[in-house]
Every structure is written in structure tokens, then in C-alpha cells.
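Researcher: Re-running this chain for the archive, since the previous output was lost when a drive failed. Same request as before.
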Amino acid sequence: MKKNPVLNGNLFLTSLNNYNMTNDIIEKFLETKIKKHSPVNIHFKQRSTLKGIFLQTNDYDELKSKNFWRIVTETNNAEWMRTGDSNLARIFNGAEFTRLTQA
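Model: Regenerated C-alpha cells:
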């Protein structure tokens, strides 16, 4: 049985092997815990943690329905803030996330 993953304002997994971050969990975190265009620490199953900003572009609802997320990573953040160019973002699969925390 899975426990509630929300604890102290952060999302934690009860088990990294059998728990997937669904689009509903990710969306709820973004809506309730993060201000628009605020950086988030994104922890992954099989890669290093990165800091990024979730973008809401024209295809946001379509991507979200498939648990894909357009994120500007810390590397491109300054350029994105200057230009607003969504081509600086990468698309990540939310099923690969293990937790999200406020940066």
C-alpha cells in the first residue's frame, strides 16, 4: 500500500522501485508549492538531480496528459529569462522523476 507522498512541502517517494510520479502528482506540486517560473529541484531515477523551471507553453496540456514536461534547465536559465525562447527548454518524462523539491 502506498503512503501519501507529500511531506513538509516536498514530494517524497515511499519506494524508488515501485512508485512513479504521475502527471497528477507533478501538476499538484507545481500548482500548490511553486510560484510560476520558480526553479525546482528535479530528482531522477537514473541520472543526477537538476534544477529547472517548468514552462507552460501552447502544448502544455497535451504534454502533461502524456506525463511529459517542458523544462528550462539551470544551464539555459539566464538566456531563457532574457529572451523567453521556449526552444531553450528540454522535454522530460515525468515517469523518470523520483521527487520534486523547491530549489
